[in-house]
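Field reference: "sequence" (input) and "structure" (output). Example, LanC-like protein 2:
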Amino acid sequence: MSRRLKLQLGGDTDMEERAFPNPFPDYEAAAARPRSRHLTRNELGLLFHSDGKIINNFTRRIQTKIKDLLQQMEEWLKTADPHDCSAYTGWTGISLLYLQLYRVTCDQTNLLRSLDYVKRTLRNLNGRRVTFLCGDAGPLAVGAVVYHKLKSDCESQECITKLLQLQRAIVCRDSDLPDELLQGQAGYLYALLYVSTEMGLGAVCGSAVKEVVDAIIESGKALSREEKKQYVGAAHGMAGIYYTLMQPAAKVDQETLTEMVKPSIDYTRHKRFRPGNYPSSLSNETDRPVHWCHGVPGVIHMLMQAYEVFKEEKYLKDAMERSDVIWQQGLLRKGYGICHGTAGNGYSFLSLYHLTRDKKYLYRACKFAEWCLEYGTHGCRIPDRPYSLFEGP
Ligand SMILES: [Zn+2]
């Protein structure tokens, strides 16, 4: 059947092509099951206690799986592309993973592993790309943070100096860099904000941040006058740019936020499809992936941040309503990763839970995590970089 015909037949066929039907009952149904037979929370499929603490059995399952996957990943790394230094699919991503494991376990060996991997990338900076996820800014920002944690202040400072040197190429007048998070100016800004957030606001000078913010705002103004294809989602589109500009560390002044950023967010908000997803670009009425990179799972982070910044209920209401689409269509055939996989979709529930403390979202996040524990058994497509940070499990 042609793709066009499928689209004419309606969204359901299209959805089946992209996602597995969600086999789990939603929270209300699971929580309302009769307790008369003294079923445990685990047997009821509730993977956390009434205070939100994850039940031991599930924690153990996750820990075992992490160990297992780390082994597989280390094996894969032996033959992985030595030149891919990115956080997205390369060595910086592996360094970030160990940094996160160090945060969770406080085990120093994880921090040293993180250092090993980031050192490798610092020797290999290519100077071509500049963003946190795809360019040199990623290894430099992660390097600064890892060295900082190891109290090697000299090396940490050296990374920050090099990171700031990239700025010249970004804010210069004839730069043809896009604004987006994955490949553009917002992706460089993200690196500065990451360092500020991890090491304290003084780590990167405020004027450097301001210069990039101003460049993005100016470029946004110019773009709004053009008739170019405009992406909506987190990776290439407006949601990722506005999300970054709303970060407290970006210190965008209130007037700019209210008069420039907010109307743009409201404009994007209204671009949704009826059932709740967002198009991948403003001119596209048919493409409807439910991914972090394109679709609600990325846009929802912009909505939550807008709620925190502007304190208007409509943003939170939107985020909660839109999350139903992720629950229904979020178990992706494309894989388990952050960018276009089930894990990235699970993150949106986790963020919603942190914001609202509503157990429904914790439940949904746990169920998506449970799905990911069965890694490799659903018949998903195998990505090009199967154990990388953004495409791997
Ligand atoms: Zn993606």
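The pocket of zinc ion is lined by residues 291, 293, 339-340 (CB under 6 Å).
The chain has two domains: 59-71+232-392, 84-228.
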